[in-house]
Amino acid sequence: MTTPxxxxxxxxxxxxxxRAEPGAQPAGRTAIRSKPVRITLDLSPELYRQLTxxxxxxxxxxxxxxxxxxxxxxxxxxxxxxNPGEVLDQLRRDRQH
Length: 97
Known about the structure:
Structural class: mainly alpha
Largest sheet: none
Distance between the termini: 53 Å
Number of helices: 4
Oligomer: single chain
């Protein structure tokens, strides 16, 4: 008996093979993901301290007991997406070291 994962892999392989045939229709639109995507991020101890210090000060400014790290990262990503210039500059500086 095959597992659901094995079945899905077989379906994906079959779909890829069909797309490779001469005259095959192009692949359809990618499904819109409805579940959140989990990422993992390793930080140096210094960056972690900076992040937790920032969330502590943000909690004080917002008048709440604490700001979860995940909420802070989501907000930072949104701001970065709207104003990428400074982040691009920092990436350039980081790559020079």
